[in-house]
Design a protein that fits this description.
single chain, 158 residues, mainly alpha, 0% strand, elongated
């Protein structure tokens, strides 16, 4: 039964690729292991801390990369909104792989469209869109790496 719980935890972590809060949802799995007595409270708290760090790092990566390179808050908000919307809309394409593509294209497109509307300069808009994309990719992969670390900890200590 532990393997089934770990498989679900792994799948929840991978749902981060489509912009869903997979790491937070994946906390249900270590909680189940804790309730069953397979995981100690010490390791459960460690997993909660790691997942919290992943969420913070993902947000900060997108936000700070945008701020560092001169994006305003609205541009970052558009990036996040378009990433979620395109991730959901493109999910049926290529058996779910479209969601991954949609999330990252949405991060670029949201910033690009906002910047083209406000600056009227296509080169500046492309550059700023790429900045949003880089922040999104970096934050997402760090968050997934930390999520996979929690799956490993659940396996090792659960």
């Amino acid at each position: 039964m532990k393997i089934v719980v770990l498989i679900f935890q792994f799948l929840f972590v991978l749902s981060n690729l489509v912009g869903l809060p997979g790491n937070i949802v994946s906390l249900v799995c270590p909680l189940i292991l804790l309730i069953w007595g397979n995981l100690t409270i010490k390791y459960f708290i460690l997993i909660v801390i790691i997942i919290g760090l992943g969420e913070i790092i993902e947000f900060l990566s997108t936000y700070l990369s945008g701020k560092y390179f001169g994006l305003d808050k609205k541009s970052i908000y558009f990036s996040i909104a378009f990433a979620i919307i395109l991730g959901i809309l493109m999910a049926p394409i290529l058996f779910g792989i479209g969601a991954v593509i949609g999330t990252f294209v949405g991060a670029f497109l949201g910033t690009f469209l906002y910047e083209i509307y406000t600056t009227k300069n296509i080169l500046t808009s492309i550059k700023r869109g790429l900045i949003s994309l880089t922040g999104k990719v970096t934050g997402t992969f760090i968050k997934i790496a930390l999520g996979l670390t929690t799956v490993y900890l659940s396996y090792l200590f659960g």
